[in-house]
Structure formats: C-alpha cells, structure tokens
UniProtKB/TrEMBL annotation:
Repeat recorded as keyword: no
HAMAP family recorded: Chorismate_synth
SUBUNIT field: Homotetramer.
Binding positions (FMN): 132-134, 251-252, 296, 311-315, 337
Keyword set includes NADP: yes
Entry cofactors: FMNH2
Gene Ontology CC terms, in alphabetical order: cytosol
Gene name of the encoded protein: aroC
A Pfam family it matches: Chorismate_synt
Protein name per UniProt: Chorismate synthase
Length: 388
C-alpha cells in the first residue's frame, strides 16, 4: 500500500491516490469525513478552520460502496480557492494584477520552511514554499489514514488517540485502555481528565493573549494488532522505526517514543521489560506494557502505544526577528492568521499516520488481493500466538 498527495494550501484542491487497498472492502465516505472533521476541531484553532469544511470526494477505486482493488483517488476541495484564483491559479498573472495584489512574499517566518525552501528551490516569492509546506497537507494524510482505519477495523484492529500534555500541563496518568476508550473525544482538548481539560484551555488562552503559541504531547494506542508485524531482520522493516519516521514527518513533530519512552532512561531494566506469560485461550501475553507493544521491531500482541511531541506553532502574533530576502533588512515577523495551539488536531493526524504505517506493514506481510484473503491469514497469525 502506498500513496501520493498533492495540492497547495490555497490551491483548488488536495488530491490523494492510494494504491494497494484490497478489493471488496466496504467504504463509506462519511467514515472518512468523520476523521476529516475531527482534524479541524480542537480548542485553540484559528479562523481557517471556520472557512474550510473539509469533505472528501471519492473519484476512483470504489464502486457502489466497495473497493475494486484499483487505485483509490480522494479529493478535498479548498472552498477558500474562490478568493485565491488569481494568486494561486495555474494561469499566468499580469504585472498589473501582481502589483495590485502585493503578491510577492519576501519575509520568511522563523520556524517555517520559508527561508530554506526559497533558497533550495530558487523561489523569490516565498508563497511558492509556504503553500506546500503548510500543515494543510495533513488533511490529505488524514484521508489516507481514514481509509487505513476502515481496513484495519475489519480485522479487529482499532485506534484510540488522546492528548497527554499541552504547554507543560499534563494528563499523563497511566489510565487503563478501557478508561481511555470511554473518554475519547469527550472534550475539545482531547484529554481524559475534564479538570485538566479546563486548565489546558486556560493555558491556551493565556498563550494567545501573550501573542504566543504552545505545543504538547499526543498519544495513539492501537489495539488488536497480531504478533510479528514488522521484522527484526533489516532496518527498514522494523515497524516501530517506520512509525517513528511517519510521526516525525508530520509538520511540527519533533519527537516520538513508544510505551514509557524516555522514562526508560531512568528506570532499571527489571521495570522496563515486559514479562512473558501464557494462557490457553489468549496464548502468549505480557504482564505489563512498558515497551508499548514492540520488541525487535515487531508487534508483540500488546497494544501499540505511540507518543509524539509537537513543538509550539511557529507563526506568532508576538513578532520574532527575521530578514527580508530582497532588502536584507531586519524586520519583525508578523502573521497572516494562525492557530495558537493545534495539539488536539495534531493528535488526530498522528493517529491516522500511524494507521497508514500499520496497514502498509500488514499488507506487506500477508497476501491481500481481497479482504477475505487478508482476514483468513490474520486469523491464522492470531492462532499462531496460541499454538506456537
Ligand atoms: C494540525 C497542524 C496545524 C498546524 N497549524 C499551524 C498554524 O496555524 N500556523 C503555523 O505557523 N504552523 C502550524 N503548524 C505547524 C507548521 O506547519 C510547521 O511547524 C511548519 O510547516 C514547519 O515544519 P517543522 O515544524 O516540522 O519544521 C501546524 C501543524 C499541524 C500538525
């Protein structure tokens, strides 16, 4: 399974082509759109989210509600494009229009791709960089993840995500999975504890008032992944490594860990390895899940626990020093419009990025021309964990 995304932030649309999805999988576009809406929500987001109402249209690969096994194309129309036709359209623009619209951006924002992207691709108008480097692209990745999750749900593999920390305020109690499941999407900051939710809202409000932004930590949990997905035999087949790459490729994500993550640096080995137990109905299992479901780059049958760290959004109302690329003069970088905290939304992006990596690894592991073929092999693998 693989995909390509295209589209600029203020262009006509985002497009995704996904190849390798098994045939005969039931797909309902409303399930994809549910994920899309979730990505747009969350406390602390700016005006753009009120302008755009992301909705996916499926234009290939699905017929009468079922996948054909051919490439699936999804498009997300940017409603805002009507206002950007001249600036972002494919047609040449007259010099007069250019002047009228003050089209050229020469002031790079610290923390964004603007300056280095301009140098690298020889753009003197930094809009040519920021349009594609924008986190708008994550909408396309959520669409891919939503298709992945529909597939994985058929195999009894389910996803849960939450926010663990924003701006230093933590909801990092080690809740059991049932508590997390019961509290998913309960509030607009996506934390389990409602009192902490209010503290976080207050923190976001004060950051906004100060013209600043805040980041945080998000967590995705995957339940039901059979043992032995991924491999220890080669670096690029280790599933934890592939998930890490996926998460850090999301805009503003600067770190990833599994299970107890960086706490492993402080604890003795006896408190970090998970003891192996056996039960005649469930087979091999672990007495704990400190390692977050991975040993040797392979799933060990315990829930997969992925943590991702998001930096504070770089576009600030509080201006930072930067340099104009034409005049080389110093200026204070100001903003167009921006979120003050996108951590709740980003937790949805992480969940969907993890879903794609897991779907991809499963489809590499098992023959999967059609969904029933895949299902029967997954059943066999689950049996192996009992019979081995
Ligand atoms: C869901 C989401 C929303 C984001 N919204 C904004 C935003 O409104 N303003 C902003 O400056 N950066 C935003 N970012 C982060 C930037 O896209 C990102 O920091 C930038 O592209 C530079 O990439 P880097 O931080 O990975 O180096 C967002 C990121 C995500 C995941």
């Amino acid at each position: 399974m693989r995909y390509l995304t295209s589209g600029e932030s203020h262009g006509p649309q985002l497009t995704v082509i996904i190849e390798g999805v098994p045939a005969n999988l039931e797909i309902n576009v409303s399930d994809i759109n549910e994920e899309m809406f979730k990505r747009q929500g969350g406390y602390g987001r700016g005006r753009r989210m009120q302008i755009e109402k992301d909705a996916v249209e499926i234009v290939s690969g699905v017929r009468n509600g079922y996948t054909l096994g051919s490439p699936i194309t999804l498009i997300v129309t940017n409603d805002d494009f009507t206002h950007w036709k001249k600036i972002m359209g494919a047609d040449p623009i007259s010099e007069e229009d250019q002047d009228n619209m003050k089209r050229v951006i020469t002031k790079p924002r610290p923390g964004h791709a603007d300056l280095i992207g301009g140098m690298k691709y020889n753009h003197r108008d930094l809009r040519n960089v920021l349009e594609r480097s924008s986190a708008r692209e994550t909408a396309a990745r959520v669409a891919v993840g939503a298709v992945s999750k529909i597939l994985l749900k058929q195999l009894d593999i389910n996803f849960y995500s939450r926010v663990v920390e924003i701006g230093g305020i933590k909801d990092d109690t080690e809740y059991d999975l049932e508590t997390i499941k019961a509290n998913i999407d309960k509030n607009d900051v996506r934390v389990v504890n409602d009192e902490i939710a209010q503290e976080i809202r207050d923190k976001i409000d004060s950051a906004k008032k100060a013209g600043d932004t805040i980041g945080g930590v998000v967590q995705t949990i995957v339940e039901g992944l059979p043992v032995g997905i991924g491999s220890y035999v080669h670096y690029d087949r280790k599933l934890d490594g592939r998930i890490a790459q996926g998460v850090v490729s999301i805009n503003a994500f600067k770190g990833v860990s599994f299970g107890e993550g960086f706490k492993a640096a402080e604890k003795p080995g006896s408190e970090i390895q998970d003891e192996i137990l056996y039960d005649t109905t469930k087979g091999y299992y672990r007495g704990s899940n400190h390692l977050g479901g991975f040993e040797g780059g392979m799933s060990n049958g315990m829930p997969i626990v992925v943590n991702g760290v998001m930096k504070p959004i770089p576009t600030l109302y509080k201006p930072l020093n930067s340099v104009d690329i034409n005049t080389k003069e110093s200026f204070k970088a100001s903003i167009e419009r921006s979120d003050s905290c996108a951590v709740p939304a980003a937790s949805v992006v992480v969940e969907n990025v993890v879903a794609f990596e897991i779907a991809k690894a499963l489809l590499e592991e098992f023959q999967s021309n059609h969904i029933d073929q895949l299902k029967s092999q997954i059943d066999e693998r689950r049996l192996l964990n009992i019979e081995y």
